[in-house]
């Protein structure tokens, strides 16, 4: 008897944010989410790198965090969405990746991007206007190092020896042109939870990017598309909004100050611009069935950001995603670690 493969892998993404100044508790809670997700059968757990603090925290150094998560979990894959590649020495980064991959038994996924915060670039002595060139150059070196090739000088290869990463490198992009560049480089595609700078619905904007990526793909292996979405199921919409509403509105107003969102948004429009899936699981499933990018993705990556729900509510939301939302969309929970290409 043949078992049908799941339509997509299911992931969750944490920006490692909390409330207040107790960052030890914030980091502890984020680690607990990995443990819970591992037990629930999520396929991949992702973290985002932020050098400039977010409200209530933010993760500056993802690879030590993922090494700790590897020790506390058994099968969930461990990824970055994203590591800010222009601010990293790519050879040094490759060493960190190889160490965590070795410790975790080959469970690492590597998501990279250029970032955008001028303060971060200034702190690391880089020019934010140079981010595209730096991303491209560093990605070439990172790939060489992870392919166990000599890098920068004859006779030097990273150690421990890296495994096969050809299907495990992802690029975050924000345009159709960026998607084509990712395909040309042989990277998997990461799409953000929202399309900033556009008035049209996020999935209307991003579906052509996904199609551009697939059209440009010229490699023998299967192309992968990871779709990040703000998902918060709860007892009902009112219960969900009690956990996420204030944070969403504050985040929208912060983005309005930088010109990313229009000023004066109300909560309903803020939720729309963040392309939010919230409420009873049936409401979330119904909304996802209208999502225009989901039919072409291989990985659905759920996140709560920009909201910072209470820890118990976050765990309950993960449970509802894994037991009610994702199965209704064709996903099946993992019972053991799957190879990266499945």
UniProtKB/TrEMBL annotation:
Pfam families, per the entry: Bac_luciferase
InterPro entries: Bact_Lucif_Oxidored, Luciferase-like_dom, Luciferase-like_sf
Luciferase-like domain ranges (all copies): 13-249
Origin: domain of life: Bacteria
UniProt xrefs under SUPFAM superfamilies: Bacterial luciferase-like (SSF51679)
UniProt name for this protein: FMN-dependent luciferase-like monooxygenase
